[in-house]
Amino acid sequence: MRGRLTLLVAAVGVLVVIAFLVPLAVLVRTVAADRATTRATADVQRLVPLVGTADPETIRSTVDQIGADTGRDVSVFLADGTVLGTPASRTPTVVLAARGESLTVESAAGREVVVAVQGRPEGTGVIRTVVPRDELTAGVTRAWLVLALLGALLVLVGLVVADRLAGSLVRPISALSAVSHRLANAELDARVEPAGPAELREVAGALNHLAERIQVLLREEREQVADLSHRLRTPLTALRLEAESLRDPDDAARLTTAVDGLERAVTGVIRQARWRSTASAGGSCDAAAVVGERVTFWSVLAEDTARTLTIDLAPGPLPVRLSGDELAAAVDALLGNVFAHTPDGTPFQVRLAARADEVTLTVADAGPGLPPGSRRRGASGAGSTGLGLDIAERAARAGGGRLELSAGPDGGARVVLTLGVVAPR
């Protein structure tokens, strides 16, 4: 934008300079030619009384003297054919002037000035002089050079002023852009200092107001989620007491483990609800330990529903750029989808593989596959919330990876969660 404004001012400045300097340059040349012609005419007019009354010898000496003083060719044509001064032939202009008419005409040699003189006994005499081209344009080149330098100086000053003006416009716009990018990166405390024209100051104020409003809305949302999570603690406590009161130790242990997992999830929701920004949601964990723990938990339900579970987990530690709570939530979401969207008895497999710069978790089943639009947030074909894949995808992005959906080797669904590893220190 700054370059375009400068270019625009430069173009306008050049056009204005041309519009003024070109006519001025033509005027300078015309004035110089007219001044030279006026001087030549004045010199010729000094000879008129002499040519009208003096003898030829007196006229000759005076004409030679004037020619030597002015550096121009001066000739006097008498009616009897005598030519005094600089030898020259009778031109059509001289012939016309012999009829009594004084003229100034352009010729190949310059500008020809002829003056008719009445009163001589033999007839009308004619005084002729020629103003050469170099005298007609004397000083014009220097004047044009001065005008060109003046025009260049004006354009340069215009460019400097335009650059300063463009800078006063571009700097506030750049500040607005920088703050908007910071807000997009979850730096909600970023603010812009209003500057520049009134319109840009108004935009800056609107952006600051928007950032404050976003902070208020996020704070209200987090508090609402936190409040809802706190409300869940009471039924969780009651559920734990019920689990501990069961007589069968195996059932009590299994139900207590489920309550523990639910409580961890609720605790994670509370923590995430109180995070100031998504940028603070960093962390790391051992993917092998977290995935192993969650697969062990779900293997009990797989056994109860007659599902064959194939487990292939790479040995740890496998540090990934994701907190343990978020990774556990993603694993629970993927495995929960298997139980929610496939019939009992459907086999599935869980594989955790490690590479140089990433860790890959693959969950594949032999069920009916993914329905169309299942990746869309809130979409579900089994009466669930439809947020499982969305939770996994957000975890993948937070962990510097990606989530891929495809058909499994047995025709069912195959979900691959890739996470970036933590660089060794």
From TrEMBL:
Residue span(s) of domain Histidine kinase: 227-423
Record carries keyword Transmembrane helix: yes
TM stretches of this protein: 143-162
Pfam families: HAMP, HATPase_c, HisKA
Domain annotation HAMP: ranges: 167-219
Catalytic activity from the UniProt record: ATP + protein L-histidine = ADP + protein N-phospho-L-histidine
Residue segments, region Disordered: 365-385
Entry GO MF terms: ATP binding
Catalytic activity, EC: 2.7.13.3
Signal peptide range: none
Keywords: ATP-binding, Cell membrane, Kinase, Membrane, Nucleotide-binding, Phosphoprotein, Transferase, Transmembrane, Transmembrane helix, Two-component regulatory system
Main subcellular localisation: membrane
Lineage: superkingdom: Bacteria
InterPro entries tied to this protein: 2C_sensor_his_kinase, HAMP_dom, HATPase_C_sf, HATPase_dom, His_kinase_dom, HisK_dim/P_dom, HisK_dim/P_sf
Record has Transmembrane as a keyword: yes
Localisation: Cell membrane
Membrane topology recorded in Swiss-Prot or TrEMBL: Multi-pass membrane protein
Protein name: histidine kinase
Organism: Micromonospora maritima
